[in-house]
Amino acid sequence: MIELGKVQKLEIIRKAEFGVYLNEKDNKSDSDILLPIKQVPEGVDIGDELEVFIYKDSEDRLIATTNRPKLVLDEVEVLRVAETTKIGAFLDWGLEKDLLLPFKEQIGKVERGKEYLVGLYVDKSNRLCATMKVNRILSSDSPYKVDDRIKGIIYRINKDMGVFVAVDNKYDAMIPKHELYWTYRIGDKIEGRVTKVRDDGKLALSLREKGQIQTDEDVIRVLTKMIKNGGVLMLNDDSSPEEIKEELNMSKGAYKKVIGRLLKDKKIEIIKNGVKLL
Fold first, then answer.
1. Rounded to whole angstroms, how far apart are CA atoms 224 and 64?
2. Which among 182, 183, 149 is positioned nearest to 173, based on CA atoms?
3. CATH 1.10.10.10: which residues of the chain?
4. What residues have CB less than 8 Å from 160, skipping those under 6 apart?
5. CATH topology classification for 76-135
6. Could you report how far apart the first and last alpha carbons of the chain are, in Å?
7. Which helix (H) or strand (E) holds 248?
8. Cα 232 from Cα 214, distance rounded (Å)
9. What is the 3-state secondary structure (H, E, C) of 161-221?
10. 213: which residues sit within 8 A by CB, 6+ positions away?
């Protein structure tokens, strides 16, 4: 079966002045697919097999290309917006005809020249389109386990739940709300650590290092902030978690760990409403 949106091997069935026609080697489809002459490799003949990508031309006809697009069916990739129009945005995916990202498949404002993480799907009219709602394409069957390091890109933000991440552009993951200590945007690239593999296979992530490593980083952050503030920091046990997060991008618990360590090392002293460097 010839599949729209996928790379597959097809056989040259016949030649024409404007290209060659392709079909499956064994279970032939009803209609042959044109590979335009400028795409035909030199020296090929009837019976030869070619690896091609199947999409639709400007007249909505199936057509083959030997060029591989940046995105194929059931994958996600970061693509640049070539143009925005009244029907949606058009993305550069490496083929002559740009890929449509319909308005209903967009999340937030989409701007020309910027890059967005999208997936490829076949719409109800049997056309290839892009979507920013990539959760329906991402897999939950990742090879990662707890404490593994990961890289990903943020594809959705839910203020009540957290930040959703595509790990390796393949696997679905989330940074829970309580693990967020600064502001993120859709499209931001992150590096983190797996804290849990859920029963459904999705990953829970943290951007903070484990144990002592994270405490060392937090100490540096607090000391840097104190130096910038003239050696003082006006935060104490009565400060709210929100105040500490706004000032230092860390939780209140993490801040208290740092203060306890700095007091033990005799690097700070307690003052009214805060702490001071010694």
1. 58
2. 149
3. 211-277
4. 177
5. OB fold (Dihydrolipoamide Acetyltransferase, E2P) (2.40.50)
6. 75
7. helix 241-248
8. 22
9. CEEEEEECCCEEEEEEHHHCCCCCCCCCEEEEEEEEECCCCCEEEECCCCHHHHHHHHHHH
10. none
- Written as six digits, the tokens of 36 are 């335009």
Give the span between the Cα atoms of 250 and 241, in whole angstroms.
Answer: 9
Compute CA distances 53 → 9, 71, 203, 259, whole Å: 9, 11, 32, 59
Output the six-digit token pair for 273: 């409403």
Question: Residue 247: what residue type?
Answer: E
Side chain identity at residue 162, one-letter code: G
The residue written with tokens 């951007």 in the block is 207
CB-facing half-sphere around the CA of 103: CA atoms within 13 A? 5
Those residues with Cβ within 8 angstroms of residue 43's Cβ, 6 or more apart along the chain or in another chain: none
CATH among 3.40.50.300, 1.10.10.10, 3.40.50.10140, 3.50.50.60 for 211-277: 1.10.10.10
**Residue 14 β-bridge partners:** 21
Which pLDDT tens digits describe the chain residue by residue (278 residues)? 888 999 999 999 999 999 999 999 887 777 899 999 999 999 899 999 999 999 998 888 899 999 999 999 988 999 999 999 999 999 999 998 899 999 999 988 899 999 999 999 999 988 999 999 998 899 988 999 998 999 999 998 988 899 999 999 899 999 998 778 677 888 888 888 999 999 888 999 988 766 555 667 788 888 888 888 899 899 888 888 888 888 887 778 788 888 888 888 888 899 888 888 88
Cα–Cα distance, 29 to 210 (Å, whole number): 56
Query: Dihedral of the CA atoms 177, 180, 182, 187 (nearest 10)?
Result: -80
In terms of CATH architecture, what is 7-65? Beta Barrel (2.40)
> What pTM was estimated for this model as a whole?
0.69
